Amino acid sequence: MFQQSRFSRFMREKTFGIKTLSVVAVSCLLGGLVTASGLNWTRTSAAQSPAAQEATSAPLPRITSLAPLAEKLTPSVVNIKVVKMEKVQFQFPGFPEGPFGDFFERFNNGRQLAPPEQRVQGSGSGVIISADGYILTNNHVVEGAKELRVTLADQRDFKAEIVGRDPKTDLAVVKIDGVNNLPAAEMGNSDALKVGDSVMAIGNPFGLNQTVTSGIVSAKGRIIGAGPYDDFIQTDASINPGNSGGPLINMNGEVVGINTAILPNGQGIGFAIPVNTAKPLIPQLVKNGEVTRGFIGVNIQSVTPEIAQAMKLGDHTGALVADVIPGSPAEKAGIQRGDLIVSYDGRAVRDSHELPAMVAGTPVGETARVTVLRDGSEKEMKLEVAKLPSEKTSEDDSPQKSNEKWGLMLRDVTPQVADEYSLKDGHGVLIAGVQPGSPADRASVRKGDVILEVNRKPVQSVEDVKKSIAHAGDSNSLLLLVRRNNATLFVPLTIS
User: Fold this and answer.
1) Which of 157, 170, 335, 337 has the fewest CB atoms within 10 Å, i.e. is most exposed?
2) Domains, the chain
3) Catalytically active residues, by annotation
4) DSSP E strands: which ranges in 93-189?
5) Residues 293-312: pLDDT tens digits?
6) Alpha helices (H) in 123-273, listed in sequence order
7) What are the tens digits of pLDDT across the range 204-262?
Protein backbone atom coordinates (compact mmCIF):
# COMPACT_ATOMS: atom_id res chain seq x y z
CA MET A 1 0.00 0.00 0.00
CA PHE A 2 2.86 2.36 0.81
CA GLN A 3 4.55 1.81 -2.57
CA GLN A 4 1.29 2.22 -4.52
CA SER A 5 0.40 5.52 -2.88
CA ARG A 6 3.79 6.97 -3.73
CA PHE A 7 3.44 5.89 -7.33
CA SER A 8 -0.03 7.46 -7.60
CA ARG A 9 1.17 10.75 -6.18
CA PHE A 10 4.06 10.68 -8.62
CA MET A 11 1.70 10.20 -11.59
CA ARG A 12 -0.52 13.08 -10.45
CA GLU A 13 2.50 15.41 -10.34
CA LYS A 14 4.24 14.01 -13.40
CA THR A 15 4.53 17.38 -15.26
CA PHE A 16 6.49 18.96 -12.44
CA GLY A 17 8.44 15.76 -11.85
CA ILE A 18 9.53 15.37 -15.48
CA LYS A 19 10.80 18.93 -15.69
CA THR A 20 12.64 18.63 -12.45
CA LEU A 21 14.06 15.25 -13.42
CA SER A 22 15.38 16.63 -16.71
CA VAL A 23 17.27 19.44 -14.99
CA VAL A 24 18.70 17.09 -12.40
CA ALA A 25 19.72 14.55 -15.02
CA VAL A 26 21.62 17.13 -17.12
CA SER A 27 23.36 18.51 -14.06
CA CYS A 28 24.43 15.04 -12.91
CA LEU A 29 25.71 14.15 -16.38
CA LEU A 30 27.88 17.25 -16.65
CA GLY A 31 29.18 16.80 -13.10
CA GLY A 32 29.97 13.17 -13.74
CA LEU A 33 31.94 13.93 -16.91
CA VAL A 34 34.02 16.55 -15.13
CA THR A 35 34.73 14.25 -12.21
CA ALA A 36 35.49 11.21 -14.33
CA SER A 37 38.04 13.10 -16.41
CA GLY A 38 40.36 13.29 -13.44
CA LEU A 39 39.85 9.75 -12.13
CA ASN A 40 40.58 6.20 -13.21
CA TRP A 41 37.47 4.36 -14.36
CA THR A 42 36.67 1.75 -11.75
CA ARG A 43 33.60 -0.45 -11.36
CA THR A 44 31.62 0.39 -8.23
CA SER A 45 31.54 -3.20 -7.00
CA ALA A 46 35.31 -3.52 -7.33
CA ALA A 47 35.85 -0.32 -5.34
CA GLN A 48 34.00 -1.70 -2.32
CA SER A 49 35.97 -3.28 0.51
CA PRO A 50 35.62 -7.07 0.99
CA ALA A 51 33.69 -6.44 4.19
CA ALA A 52 31.29 -4.12 2.41
CA GLN A 53 30.81 -6.65 -0.38
CA GLU A 54 30.04 -9.36 2.15
CA ALA A 55 27.59 -7.11 3.98
CA THR A 56 25.71 -6.26 0.82
CA SER A 57 25.78 -9.74 -0.68
CA ALA A 58 24.69 -11.61 2.44
CA PRO A 59 21.74 -9.82 4.03
CA LEU A 60 20.29 -11.16 7.24
CA PRO A 61 17.53 -13.74 6.64
CA ARG A 62 14.02 -12.40 7.06
CA ILE A 63 11.45 -14.60 8.75
CA THR A 64 7.95 -13.73 7.63
CA SER A 65 5.96 -16.51 9.29
CA LEU A 66 6.41 -19.42 11.67
CA ALA A 67 3.40 -21.20 10.23
CA PRO A 68 5.43 -23.76 8.20
CA LEU A 69 7.43 -24.73 11.30
CA ALA A 70 4.34 -24.92 13.48
CA GLU A 71 2.55 -27.07 10.89
CA LYS A 72 5.54 -29.40 10.69
CA LEU A 73 6.21 -29.75 14.43
CA THR A 74 2.81 -29.75 16.15
CA PRO A 75 2.09 -33.40 15.18
CA SER A 76 5.19 -34.39 17.21
CA VAL A 77 3.89 -32.76 20.42
CA VAL A 78 1.52 -34.66 22.71
CA ASN A 79 -0.67 -33.93 25.70
CA ILE A 80 0.10 -36.11 28.75
CA LYS A 81 -2.75 -36.57 31.21
CA VAL A 82 -1.75 -37.78 34.66
CA VAL A 83 -3.75 -39.23 37.55
CA LYS A 84 -2.09 -39.19 40.97
CA MET A 85 -3.35 -40.18 44.39
CA GLU A 86 -2.94 -37.60 47.14
CA LYS A 87 -3.93 -37.70 50.78
CA VAL A 88 -6.94 -35.64 51.77
CA GLN A 89 -6.21 -32.88 54.24
CA PHE A 90 -8.92 -33.06 56.92
CA GLN A 91 -10.75 -29.88 57.78
CA PHE A 92 -12.76 -31.53 60.60
CA PRO A 93 -11.48 -30.23 63.99
CA GLY A 94 -9.84 -32.85 66.17
CA PHE A 95 -9.50 -35.48 63.43
CA PRO A 96 -7.60 -37.72 63.26
CA GLU A 97 -6.01 -36.35 66.46
CA GLY A 98 -7.68 -34.52 69.31
CA PRO A 99 -10.92 -35.14 71.26
CA PHE A 100 -12.72 -36.77 68.31
CA GLY A 101 -9.76 -38.91 67.29
CA ASP A 102 -10.32 -41.49 70.07
CA PHE A 103 -14.02 -41.66 69.19
CA PHE A 104 -13.33 -42.57 65.58
CA GLU A 105 -10.54 -44.94 66.58
CA ARG A 106 -12.93 -47.01 68.74
CA PHE A 107 -15.14 -47.56 65.72
CA ASN A 108 -12.13 -48.72 63.72
CA ASN A 109 -11.15 -51.61 66.06
CA GLY A 110 -8.40 -49.61 67.66
CA ARG A 111 -6.53 -48.90 64.42
CA GLN A 112 -5.29 -45.40 63.77
CA LEU A 113 -7.26 -43.88 60.93
CA ALA A 114 -5.06 -42.81 58.02
CA PRO A 115 -6.18 -39.89 55.89
CA PRO A 116 -7.92 -41.22 52.77
CA GLU A 117 -6.56 -40.60 49.30
CA GLN A 118 -8.25 -38.89 46.41
CA ARG A 119 -7.63 -38.87 42.67
CA VAL A 120 -5.91 -35.74 41.43
CA GLN A 121 -5.61 -35.03 37.73
CA GLY A 122 -2.93 -33.01 36.02
CA SER A 123 -1.46 -32.57 32.59
CA GLY A 124 1.73 -31.72 30.81
CA SER A 125 3.34 -32.00 27.42
CA GLY A 126 5.78 -34.29 25.68
CA VAL A 127 7.60 -34.67 22.38
CA ILE A 128 7.69 -37.85 20.27
CA ILE A 129 11.28 -39.03 19.80
CA SER A 130 10.71 -42.28 17.90
CA ALA A 131 8.17 -43.56 15.39
CA ASP A 132 7.32 -46.54 17.63
CA GLY A 133 5.96 -44.46 20.50
CA TYR A 134 8.76 -43.25 22.80
CA ILE A 135 8.04 -39.78 24.20
CA LEU A 136 10.36 -37.42 26.09
CA THR A 137 8.91 -35.28 28.88
CA ASN A 138 9.69 -33.92 32.36
CA ASN A 139 10.08 -36.16 35.38
CA HIS A 140 7.89 -33.84 37.46
CA VAL A 141 5.04 -34.34 34.98
CA VAL A 142 4.86 -38.12 35.47
CA GLU A 143 6.41 -38.69 38.91
CA GLY A 144 4.01 -40.56 41.20
CA ALA A 145 1.51 -41.16 38.41
CA LYS A 146 -0.99 -44.01 38.88
CA GLU A 147 -2.39 -43.60 35.39
CA LEU A 148 -0.98 -42.03 32.23
CA ARG A 149 -2.75 -41.23 28.99
CA VAL A 150 -1.27 -39.61 25.91
CA THR A 151 -3.34 -37.66 23.40
CA LEU A 152 -1.82 -37.09 19.96
CA ALA A 153 -2.34 -34.04 17.79
CA ASP A 154 -4.88 -35.99 15.73
CA GLN A 155 -6.84 -36.65 18.96
CA ARG A 156 -6.00 -40.35 19.17
CA ASP A 157 -5.74 -41.34 22.81
CA PHE A 158 -3.44 -44.05 24.26
CA LYS A 159 -2.59 -45.52 27.63
CA ALA A 160 1.09 -44.88 28.41
CA GLU A 161 3.72 -46.42 30.68
CA ILE A 162 6.72 -44.80 32.32
CA VAL A 163 9.88 -46.30 30.82
CA GLY A 164 12.49 -44.39 32.81
CA ARG A 165 12.92 -41.33 35.02
CA ASP A 166 15.85 -39.16 36.05
CA PRO A 167 14.93 -36.72 38.86
CA LYS A 168 18.35 -35.05 38.81
CA THR A 169 17.80 -33.62 35.33
CA ASP A 170 13.97 -33.67 35.52
CA LEU A 171 13.71 -35.87 32.43
CA ALA A 172 11.54 -38.92 31.78
CA VAL A 173 10.63 -41.21 28.90
CA VAL A 174 7.15 -42.70 28.48
CA LYS A 175 5.93 -45.21 25.88
CA ILE A 176 2.67 -45.86 24.04
CA ASP A 177 2.07 -49.17 22.25
CA GLY A 178 0.24 -50.15 19.11
CA VAL A 179 1.81 -47.52 16.85
CA ASN A 180 4.76 -47.60 14.48
CA ASN A 181 4.53 -44.54 12.25
CA LEU A 182 4.41 -41.57 14.59
CA PRO A 183 6.01 -38.25 13.47
CA ALA A 184 9.20 -38.12 15.55
CA ALA A 185 10.82 -34.73 16.11
CA GLU A 186 14.41 -34.16 15.03
CA MET A 187 16.96 -33.46 17.77
CA GLY A 188 19.15 -30.40 17.29
CA ASN A 189 22.37 -29.13 18.88
CA SER A 190 21.69 -26.91 21.89
CA ASP A 191 25.38 -26.02 22.18
CA ALA A 192 25.10 -24.18 18.86
CA LEU A 193 22.34 -21.91 20.20
CA LYS A 194 23.25 -18.26 20.63
CA VAL A 195 21.65 -15.61 22.77
CA GLY A 196 19.22 -13.79 20.50
CA ASP A 197 18.37 -16.80 18.33
CA SER A 198 14.67 -17.16 17.54
CA VAL A 199 12.91 -20.16 19.11
CA MET A 200 9.40 -21.56 19.25
CA ALA A 201 7.64 -23.46 22.06
CA ILE A 202 4.77 -25.89 21.56
CA GLY A 203 2.73 -27.39 24.38
CA ASN A 204 -0.56 -27.57 26.23
CA PRO A 205 -0.63 -24.66 28.70
CA PHE A 206 -3.67 -24.74 30.99
CA GLY A 207 -5.00 -27.64 28.92
CA LEU A 208 -5.10 -25.58 25.71
CA ASN A 209 -3.83 -28.18 23.27
CA GLN A 210 -1.23 -27.48 20.59
CA THR A 211 -0.46 -23.92 21.67
CA VAL A 212 2.43 -22.29 19.76
CA THR A 213 4.45 -19.38 21.17
CA SER A 214 7.67 -17.78 20.01
CA GLY A 215 10.51 -15.66 21.29
CA ILE A 216 14.27 -15.66 21.52
CA VAL A 217 17.00 -17.29 23.57
CA SER A 218 17.42 -14.81 26.42
CA ALA A 219 20.40 -16.49 28.11
CA LYS A 220 22.24 -19.80 28.38
CA GLY A 221 23.75 -21.70 31.27
CA ARG A 222 21.22 -20.45 33.83
CA ILE A 223 21.42 -21.94 37.33
CA ILE A 224 18.06 -21.79 39.09
CA GLY A 225 18.63 -24.23 41.97
CA ALA A 226 16.60 -27.04 40.44
CA GLY A 227 19.26 -29.72 40.86
CA PRO A 228 22.94 -30.66 40.66
CA TYR A 229 23.03 -30.40 36.86
CA ASP A 230 21.47 -26.97 36.37
CA ASP A 231 22.29 -25.61 32.92
CA PHE A 232 19.10 -24.08 31.56
CA ILE A 233 18.24 -22.20 28.41
CA GLN A 234 16.33 -19.04 29.31
CA THR A 235 13.71 -17.88 26.81
CA ASP A 236 11.01 -15.26 26.58
CA ALA A 237 8.77 -17.56 24.54
CA SER A 238 5.63 -17.86 26.67
CA ILE A 239 5.78 -20.96 28.87
CA ASN A 240 2.98 -21.67 31.32
CA PRO A 241 1.73 -24.56 33.50
CA GLY A 242 1.03 -27.42 31.11
CA ASN A 243 3.97 -26.54 28.83
CA SER A 244 6.28 -28.70 30.95
CA GLY A 245 7.81 -31.46 28.87
CA GLY A 246 7.09 -29.78 25.54
CA PRO A 247 9.81 -28.90 23.04
CA LEU A 248 11.72 -25.68 22.47
CA ILE A 249 12.44 -25.54 18.73
CA ASN A 250 14.96 -23.59 16.65
CA MET A 251 14.28 -22.08 13.25
CA ASN A 252 15.55 -25.23 11.52
CA GLY A 253 12.67 -27.17 13.04
CA GLU A 254 14.91 -29.04 15.49
CA VAL A 255 14.28 -29.65 19.19
CA VAL A 256 16.91 -27.76 21.19
CA GLY A 257 15.33 -27.91 24.64
CA ILE A 258 12.63 -29.39 26.86
CA ASN A 259 10.51 -26.68 28.52
CA THR A 260 10.51 -27.27 32.25
CA ALA A 261 10.21 -24.23 34.53
CA ILE A 262 9.02 -20.66 34.90
CA LEU A 263 9.61 -17.90 37.41
CA PRO A 264 6.39 -17.61 39.44
CA ASN A 265 6.59 -13.82 39.66
CA GLY A 266 8.27 -13.20 36.31
CA GLN A 267 6.76 -12.47 32.93
CA GLY A 268 8.51 -13.66 29.80
CA ILE A 269 11.04 -15.76 31.72
CA GLY A 270 10.97 -19.49 31.06
CA PHE A 271 13.59 -22.22 31.22
CA ALA A 272 14.29 -25.29 29.12
CA ILE A 273 16.65 -28.24 29.60
CA PRO A 274 19.21 -28.25 26.75
CA VAL A 275 18.57 -31.16 24.40
CA ASN A 276 22.29 -32.01 24.55
CA THR A 277 21.73 -32.86 28.21
CA ALA A 278 18.91 -35.22 27.29
CA LYS A 279 20.42 -36.99 24.26
CA PRO A 280 23.01 -39.14 26.09
CA LEU A 281 20.48 -40.02 28.83
CA ILE A 282 17.64 -41.25 26.60
CA PRO A 283 19.27 -44.60 25.69
CA GLN A 284 19.90 -45.34 29.39
CA LEU A 285 16.34 -44.41 30.37
CA VAL A 286 14.93 -46.63 27.63
CA LYS A 287 17.22 -49.57 28.38
CA ASN A 288 17.63 -49.42 32.16
CA GLY A 289 14.88 -47.13 33.41
CA GLU A 290 17.44 -44.96 35.17
CA VAL A 291 20.71 -43.16 34.56
CA THR A 292 24.12 -44.43 35.62
CA ARG A 293 26.50 -41.50 36.02
CA GLY A 294 30.25 -41.20 36.06
CA PHE A 295 32.17 -40.32 39.22
CA ILE A 296 35.75 -39.19 39.83
CA GLY A 297 35.60 -38.36 43.55
CA VAL A 298 36.24 -34.65 44.07
CA ASN A 299 34.37 -31.96 45.99
CA ILE A 300 34.62 -28.74 44.01
CA GLN A 301 33.71 -25.09 44.24
CA SER A 302 33.87 -21.97 42.08
CA VAL A 303 36.81 -19.60 42.10
CA THR A 304 35.77 -16.24 43.55
CA PRO A 305 38.00 -13.16 43.19
CA GLU A 306 38.91 -13.47 46.87
CA ILE A 307 39.95 -17.12 46.51
CA ALA A 308 41.87 -16.34 43.32
CA GLN A 309 43.80 -13.62 45.15
CA ALA A 310 44.45 -15.74 48.23
CA MET A 311 45.65 -18.72 46.16
CA LYS A 312 47.48 -16.57 43.58
CA LEU A 313 45.47 -18.02 40.69
CA GLY A 314 45.42 -14.83 38.63
CA ASP A 315 42.52 -14.69 36.18
CA HIS A 316 42.23 -18.45 35.76
CA THR A 317 38.80 -20.04 35.71
CA GLY A 318 37.87 -23.63 36.48
CA ALA A 319 36.66 -25.92 39.25
CA LEU A 320 38.62 -25.68 42.50
CA VAL A 321 39.18 -28.99 44.27
CA ALA A 322 38.17 -28.54 47.90
CA ASP A 323 38.55 -32.20 48.81
CA VAL A 324 39.45 -35.56 47.29
CA ILE A 325 37.54 -38.65 48.38
CA PRO A 326 39.87 -41.40 49.64
CA GLY A 327 40.16 -44.33 47.25
CA SER A 328 38.44 -42.45 44.42
CA PRO A 329 39.67 -42.29 40.81
CA ALA A 330 40.82 -38.71 41.45
CA GLU A 331 43.02 -39.74 44.39
CA LYS A 332 44.48 -42.64 42.41
CA ALA A 333 45.30 -40.28 39.56
CA GLY A 334 47.11 -37.86 41.87
CA ILE A 335 44.63 -34.98 42.03
CA GLN A 336 45.11 -32.97 45.20
CA ARG A 337 43.16 -30.53 47.30
CA GLY A 338 43.79 -27.02 45.98
CA ASP A 339 44.18 -28.13 42.37
CA LEU A 340 42.23 -26.11 39.83
CA ILE A 341 40.61 -28.34 37.19
CA VAL A 342 40.74 -26.35 33.93
CA SER A 343 40.00 -29.10 31.41
CA TYR A 344 38.17 -32.42 31.35
CA ASP A 345 38.59 -34.82 28.45
CA GLY A 346 39.64 -32.02 26.12
CA ARG A 347 36.80 -29.67 27.09
CA ALA A 348 37.49 -26.44 28.94
CA VAL A 349 36.02 -26.18 32.44
CA ARG A 350 35.02 -22.56 32.92
CA ASP A 351 33.18 -22.93 36.22
CA SER A 352 32.50 -25.53 38.88
CA HIS A 353 28.90 -26.12 37.76
CA GLU A 354 30.13 -27.39 34.35
CA LEU A 355 32.30 -30.25 35.63
CA PRO A 356 29.60 -32.45 37.26
CA ALA A 357 27.65 -32.68 34.00
CA MET A 358 30.81 -33.52 32.06
CA VAL A 359 31.77 -36.29 34.47
CA ALA A 360 28.21 -37.59 34.79
CA GLY A 361 27.97 -37.98 31.02
CA THR A 362 31.15 -40.06 30.79
CA PRO A 363 30.54 -43.82 30.49
CA VAL A 364 31.60 -45.80 33.55
CA GLY A 365 34.96 -47.49 32.99
CA GLU A 366 36.10 -45.01 30.36
CA THR A 367 39.47 -43.26 30.73
CA ALA A 368 39.28 -39.47 30.97
CA ARG A 369 42.03 -36.86 30.77
CA VAL A 370 41.98 -34.17 33.46
CA THR A 371 44.16 -31.05 33.30
CA VAL A 372 44.79 -29.22 36.58
CA LEU A 373 46.62 -26.06 37.50
CA ARG A 374 48.95 -26.61 40.46
CA ASP A 375 51.45 -24.03 41.73
CA GLY A 376 51.18 -22.13 38.47
CA SER A 377 51.86 -25.12 36.22
CA GLU A 378 49.47 -27.31 34.28
CA LYS A 379 49.51 -31.07 34.81
CA GLU A 380 47.54 -33.64 32.81
CA MET A 381 46.36 -36.81 34.49
CA LYS A 382 44.41 -39.83 33.33
CA LEU A 383 41.80 -41.56 35.44
CA GLU A 384 39.22 -44.31 35.02
CA VAL A 385 35.70 -43.02 35.61
CA ALA A 386 33.80 -44.97 38.28
CA LYS A 387 30.07 -45.30 38.91
CA LEU A 388 28.47 -42.56 40.98
CA PRO A 389 27.59 -44.10 44.35
CA SER A 390 24.06 -43.83 45.65
CA GLU A 391 23.43 -40.64 47.59
CA LYS A 392 23.40 -40.75 51.37
CA THR A 393 21.80 -38.14 53.57
CA SER A 394 24.22 -36.57 55.92
CA GLU A 395 23.85 -34.56 58.47
CA ASP A 396 36.03 -28.85 78.92
CA ASP A 397 36.87 -26.41 76.67
CA SER A 398 35.23 -23.10 76.52
CA PRO A 399 35.01 -21.32 73.17
CA GLN A 400 38.02 -19.14 72.48
CA LYS A 401 38.35 -16.16 70.20
CA SER A 402 40.99 -16.76 67.54
CA ASN A 403 41.32 -13.06 66.82
CA GLU A 404 38.98 -10.15 67.33
CA LYS A 405 39.18 -8.95 63.76
CA TRP A 406 37.99 -12.24 62.22
CA GLY A 407 35.05 -12.87 64.57
CA LEU A 408 35.62 -16.61 65.17
CA MET A 409 34.80 -18.52 68.34
CA LEU A 410 36.74 -21.81 68.37
CA ARG A 411 36.89 -25.06 70.33
CA ASP A 412 39.27 -27.99 70.22
CA VAL A 413 37.59 -31.15 68.98
CA THR A 414 37.65 -33.38 72.06
CA PRO A 415 35.70 -36.66 72.12
CA GLN A 416 32.93 -34.87 73.99
CA VAL A 417 32.77 -32.06 71.43
CA ALA A 418 32.82 -34.55 68.57
CA ASP A 419 29.88 -36.40 70.13
CA GLU A 420 28.00 -33.18 70.82
CA TYR A 421 28.32 -31.97 67.23
CA SER A 422 28.11 -35.46 65.62
CA LEU A 423 31.61 -35.16 64.16
CA LYS A 424 32.89 -38.39 62.64
CA ASP A 425 36.54 -37.76 63.51
CA GLY A 426 38.59 -35.54 65.76
CA HIS A 427 40.46 -33.67 63.02
CA GLY A 428 40.39 -29.89 62.82
CA VAL A 429 39.05 -27.09 64.99
CA LEU A 430 35.35 -26.51 65.63
CA ILE A 431 33.75 -23.13 64.97
CA ALA A 432 31.54 -22.72 68.02
CA GLY A 433 30.27 -19.27 67.14
CA VAL A 434 30.52 -16.40 64.66
CA GLN A 435 30.39 -12.74 65.62
CA PRO A 436 27.63 -10.91 63.67
CA GLY A 437 28.97 -8.48 61.08
CA SER A 438 32.50 -9.89 61.28
CA PRO A 439 34.57 -11.03 58.26
CA ALA A 440 33.67 -14.63 59.15
CA ASP A 441 29.97 -13.73 59.18
CA ARG A 442 30.22 -11.92 55.83
CA ALA A 443 31.95 -14.99 54.35
CA SER A 444 29.00 -17.19 55.49
CA VAL A 445 31.06 -19.19 57.98
CA ARG A 446 28.66 -21.17 60.17
CA LYS A 447 28.58 -22.44 63.69
CA GLY A 448 29.42 -26.14 63.49
CA ASP A 449 31.89 -25.80 60.61
CA VAL A 450 35.25 -27.47 61.25
CA ILE A 451 38.44 -25.68 60.20
CA LEU A 452 40.91 -28.08 58.58
CA GLU A 453 43.43 -25.57 57.20
CA VAL A 454 44.38 -21.93 57.61
CA ASN A 455 46.22 -20.39 54.65
CA ARG A 456 46.85 -23.89 53.27
CA LYS A 457 48.41 -25.11 56.56
CA PRO A 458 46.67 -28.00 58.44
CA VAL A 459 45.45 -27.19 61.95
CA GLN A 460 44.57 -29.56 64.81
CA SER A 461 43.96 -27.18 67.70
CA VAL A 462 42.85 -23.68 68.55
CA GLU A 463 46.49 -22.89 69.23
CA ASP A 464 47.38 -23.95 65.69
CA VAL A 465 44.78 -21.54 64.30
CA LYS A 466 46.13 -18.69 66.42
CA LYS A 467 49.68 -19.37 65.24
CA SER A 468 48.62 -19.44 61.61
CA ILE A 469 46.77 -16.15 62.00
CA ALA A 470 49.74 -14.61 63.79
CA HIS A 471 52.01 -15.82 60.99
CA ALA A 472 49.79 -13.98 58.49
CA GLY A 473 50.66 -10.73 60.27
CA ASP A 474 48.66 -7.69 59.20
CA SER A 475 47.23 -9.38 56.13
CA ASN A 476 43.66 -8.41 55.35
CA SER A 477 42.79 -11.83 53.96
CA LEU A 478 42.61 -15.31 55.42
CA LEU A 479 41.88 -18.55 53.56
CA LEU A 480 40.13 -21.28 55.52
CA LEU A 481 39.44 -24.84 54.48
CA VAL A 482 36.35 -25.97 56.35
CA ARG A 483 34.31 -29.15 56.48
CA ARG A 484 30.56 -28.66 56.49
CA ASN A 485 28.52 -31.86 56.90
CA ASN A 486 30.12 -34.20 54.35
CA ALA A 487 31.47 -31.44 52.08
CA THR A 488 34.78 -29.60 52.22
CA LEU A 489 35.22 -26.09 50.82
CA PHE A 490 37.59 -23.14 50.81
CA VAL A 491 36.26 -19.98 52.46
CA PRO A 492 38.11 -16.65 51.98
CA LEU A 493 37.83 -14.09 54.79
CA THR A 494 38.60 -10.47 53.92
CA ILE A 495 38.68 -7.17 55.76
CA SER A 496 37.54 -4.30 53.57
Assistant:
1) 157
2) 75-176 (2.40.10.10), 186-288 (2.40.10.10), 294-387 (2.30.42.10), 400-494 (2.30.42.10)
3) 140, 170, 244
4) 117-128, 134-138, 145-151, 157-166, 171-176, 186-187
5) 889 999 888 888 888 888 88
6) 139-142
7) 888 788 899 999 999 998 877 666 777 899 999 888 888 899 999 999 999 999 999 88
